C-alpha cells in the first residue's frame, strides 16, 4: 500500500516542512521566546527558542505522519481502503503543521490572532473533510469509529460511518462560523461539539447492535457495564471541570480569604498589602503550576512584567486587581468589571496603605 501512495506521501511530507524556510526568513523579527503550547483556555503555557521551534514543530508532525502511515499500512484490511480516505490520512498532518506554525509565527510578530478561534476553525475544516470521506471507509482497526459493535460487525460499521459522516460534516459547519465568536464562547462550542459527535456516534452504533441482537441477526458482544458507567462519569466530570467553578473573596476583620473551586484557598492579611492597582483588561501570563479551564485560571503564573506571580481570576477577565505583597504579586478578578472594581475598593478601604 505504501508503494501505491509513495508519491503522495513524499509530497505531503514536503508540505509538512514548508513552515521551516518561512520561519528562517522571519527569524530576525522573532523575540527571544516563542509561545509554542497553549492550554484549554487558549493561554500560552509553553515557550521555546525560536530556532528550535521553527524546526521542532514540523518535524514532530512529520514523525506523526509516518507513524500514522505505518499503522495504516500494517492493517491488512486497509489494502482495499477507499483512496480518498488514504488522502485524508496523508494530508491531515500537513494542514496541522502549517496551521500551528503560522499561528506561532503570527503571535511572535504581535499580530492580533485568536488562538481559540483558529483552533476551532481548524477542527471545523477537519470535521468537514472527515465527514465527507467517513462514509466511504471500509472496516478496519486503525481509523474510524472503532467501538466494539463496529469492529465486530461490518454492517454496523457501514451504518455507523454513514450516520457519523453526516453528523461530523454538520459539526464542521457549526464550528467554522463559531470560530468568529469571542474566545470563551468559541471554545465552549468546540468542546460541546466534540462531546456530542463522540457520544452520538457511539450511541448510534450501540443502538444498531441492539436492534440486530433483538432480531437475532447478530451474536451478543460481552461488554462490562462498568465500562459504560465509567465513560459517562468521565464525560460528566470533564464537563464540570471545564465549565463550572467560582472565586469568592471573604473579608474578615484582619484578613481576606480567596475561596476557589477546584483549587486551594488563600488567606492574606491586610497588613501584608503594600500596594493595590485596578487595571482594565486581562493580565497575560504563562501558567507554571495550578489550574486552568474555560472558566477559571488559578495558581502560579509567570510573565515579563511581574516575573512569577499568583493568580485567582476568571478566564479573560474584563479587569483585574493587582495586589503587591512584599516581593509577591497577587492578581485577582471578579466575573466582570463591576465585581473586580468592588474587590479593589473593598481591599483599598481595609489595607493600611500609606498615602
Outline the structure in words.
With 355 residues, this protein is an alpha+beta fold. The chain folds into three domains: 1-113, no CATH class; 114-243, no CATH class; 247-350, no CATH class. The chain has helices at residues 6-16, 19-26, 50-74, 83-108, 115-133, 148-151, 154-178, 183-214, 225-243, 337-350; strands spanning 34-38, 44-48, 247-251, 255-260, 266-269, 275-280, 286-292, 296-303, 307-314, 319-325, 328-332. The strands form three sheets. Strands 6-10-11-9-8-7 form a six-stranded mixed sheet, with helices on one face. The protein has a three-stranded antiparallel sheet with strand order 3-4-5, covered by helices on one side. It has a two-stranded antiparallel sheet with strand order 1-2. A hairpin with a 2-residue loop joins strand 10 (319-325) and strand 11. The chain starts with 5 loop residues before the first helix and ends in a 5-residue tail after the last helix. The model has no long low-confidence stretch (mean pLDDT 86).
